[in-house]
Amino acid sequence: MEDTTVLLGHGSGGTMMRRIIDNVFMQAYGTDELHQGNDAADLVIPQDGSRLAYSTDSFVVTPHFFPGGDIGHLAICGTVNDVATSGARPAYLSCGFILEEGFPMTDLKRICASMAKTAQEAGVHIATGDTKVVNRGHGDGIYINTSGIGFIPKDRHLGGQLCKPGDKILVTGTLGDHGITIMSCREQLSFHANIRSDAAPLNGLIEDVLQAAPGTRCFRDPTRGGLASTLNELSEQAGVNMSVQEELIPVKPEVRGACEMLGYDVLQVANEGKMVSVVPADQADAALRAMKNNTYGKDAAIIGEVEEKEAQRDSRVTVRTAIGSTRILDMLVGEQLPRIC
Amino acid sequence: MEDTTVLLGHGSGGTMMRRIIDNVFMQAYGTDELHQGNDAADLVIPQDGSRLAYSTDSFVVTPHFFPGGDIGHLAICGTVNDVATSGARPAYLSCGFILEEGFPMTDLKRICASMAKTAQEAGVHIATGDTKVVNRGHGDGIYINTSGIGFIPKDRHLGGQLCKPGDKILVTGTLGDHGITIMSCREQLSFHANIRSDAAPLNGLIEDVLQAAPGTRCFRDPTRGGLASTLNELSEQAGVNMSVQEELIPVKPEVRGACEMLGYDVLQVANEGKMVSVVPADQADAALRAMKNNTYGKDAAIIGEVEEKEAQRDSRVTVRTAIGSTRILDMLVGEQLPRIC
Q1: Smallest Cα distance from B270 to chain A, Å
Q2: How far does A211 lie from chain B, in Å, by closest CA?
Q3: What's the pLDDT tens digit per position in B308-318?
Q4: Is residue A130 within 8 angstroms of chain B, CB to CB?
């Protein structure tokens, strides 16, 4: 299928996004590094063969301020988390602003203060930056791009391709909080009082898990497209099936209620302060304990496992329900909620 | 002076931009790395003490295609050049797109092909990327952020702070080509047939100069704000004065004519394929020869020198004219031509 113009769904984290990545970007410059397919590229430093992780994300969320965070907080957390998924210790960030003429300076200062606070919590330095201003009507107040560099300890090799049948699938907490918060702000829905974005820097949590469960296969940031996109990507990357047990997936009652009301599958809703992790079965309990001992992992859970893929068939993700039925968990197709991050 | 909203001039590369950097960004998170004040941050890799260069730039130029280049070509050149100013060998780039709903896919493919070609010429890999789509009316087709990483050879230490009285100031070619090209496209001016953007990856040229003149103090990319902003920044950074001889500064006759017609000072017009370099006097001829032997440096020239600053006075940049008069070369104050890169 050939798209003739850019559509909102191309930024969704779902199958349309895959299409633009494969048909446009990979076609033009499909480097080995891009083909790794993890949240951060794992790169060799030529001088000494040591490794660094490198990732980038642009942030276009609206509204700019929401319960639990703001676009600046998100811009730091998102990139710190992507870098940390590789097992790297995030060290330096770049920050590029695209500001719209007329954007209030007080809002910009508030956003920058939030970035400074979050960078400090995560232990990273904003090392380089750029500012562009576009004329009124050609932006939406503020867009922020961050990129990040982290250094990967010698013995660490993580990546979605390492998942093996028998491994356990963990999430570090409740799903859907960020997406439903943004939605409720935008639509001014009544349930929003009890819901907050989960955006948080998770490099400390990842480090704790890797100390406790050094065999951990991978971490993945279930942002756009939610758990559904993440598990589908991982299973395809590793050539395996994955299966999760619905009642084990932690979801806040108010988020579940909002999803039911709005007709969303919570497993496709974006998160900004959660990790999906795949861990060998014999280290899964240790990983879970490490998550639960961290501020940002109190609601962590083992939710399923990696399974053998049938020969000649595509990888598949299934959800088993409490009553024993099974459904296929598909990637998001179009766009559920644009500009979630 | 307190700005209450963001103005176009805050993206100019001139004094207003300095104000937003100092009053907003540095106030919020003024890290040591940001205070270095060079085009790329010079960072230590903790494992072994070796160093990397890191820089970022967002590209919002309009039109997206212009004689001599396009937004994609610019997005690679700009960041490669900023990284290379530190003496680093650029290795990896990140690329974040902010696309507007409805942007033609053929344009996107053409831009990506141009990025691929330029990255190949510069010898860098696009290693990580991100794509966001904003709704119609909230962008301008395409904005691109790139960041870049390069590795700095052990014995190289470059930076504006190293400039010393007696050093020579060089430029690698004619000034104003990029800015006047964009202007002429936008205004559909008749002189545009003979003018092309100079955008080019200059890492090879910089490497050549450093081989020939290893004592070179610094390179700086005279983009927004042109030579005027670059020399004012350098002289302030090093606590020196600088003086350039007007008739030694290479400017194409058609660019000079356009500037006269439009009332622009060519020394404040943006370049995208030129470097300003400061070199000790005894290596200046060697540096100049190396520039002239490179495809992108044929019109290189020694244009002036670094001078002692008077005690108790601010750093100052002066232009001496052929008839013997002298004028102060100020930084651009407001905005001359928005969205030049």
Answers
A1: 14
A2: 19
A3: 999 999 999 99
A4: yes
